[in-house]
Amino acid sequence: MVKLRLKRCGRKQRAIYRIVAIDVRARREGRDLRKVGFYDPIKNQIYLNVPAILYFLEKGAQPTGTVHDILKKAGVFTELHLNQQTKLN
């Protein structure tokens, strides 16, 4: 199973997180399938590769709690819902 979760980068006391698609059994800094964005909590910056995120969500990837909040704030789930509606019609 694939999850969208945060991978810690940066230096001591200056954490920056990559949002990655990763196998559930891998550790936090383990090998990821694909980097799909980053999140800087200090500067409150977010960059998302929305097409890649939508691809993994459509394939059944589950976001963790924090990543879910980030994606919800960015409006990714509304876009996912719209994509599913257009595929049904």
Note down, in words, how this protein is organized.
β1 and β2 form a beta hairpin. The chain has helices at residues 50-58, 65-74, 76-88, and strands at residues 2-11, 14-23, 34-40, 45-48, 62-63. The longest helix is centred in the C-terminal third of the chain and has 13 residues, at 76-88. It has a five-stranded mixed beta sheet with strand order 4-3-2-1-5. The radius of gyration is 13 Å and the shape is globular. The protein has a single domain (1-86), classed as Ribosomal protein S16 (S16 Ribosomal Protein, Chain: A). By secondary structure, the chain is an alpha+beta fold.
Uncertain segments: none
The helix fraction, in percent, is 25-40%
CATH architecture: 2-Layer Sandwich
Distance between the termini: 29 Å
**CATH superfamily membership, which one?**
Ribosomal protein S16
The main sheet comes to: 5 strands, mixed
Number of domains: 1
Radius of gyration over alpha carbons?
13 Å
**Count of discrete alpha- or pi-helical segments spanning 4 or more residues:** 3
The SS-based structural class is alpha+beta
CATH hierarchy, class: Alpha Beta
Beta-strand content bin: 35-45%
Arithmetic mean pLDDT: 89
Query: How many β-strand runs?
Result: 5
Protein name: 30S ribosomal protein S16, chloroplastic
Keywords: Chloroplast, Plastid, Ribonucleoprotein, Ribosomal protein
Subcellular location: Plastid, Chloroplast
InterPro entries: Ribosomal_bS16, Ribosomal_bS16_CS, Ribosomal_bS16_dom_sf
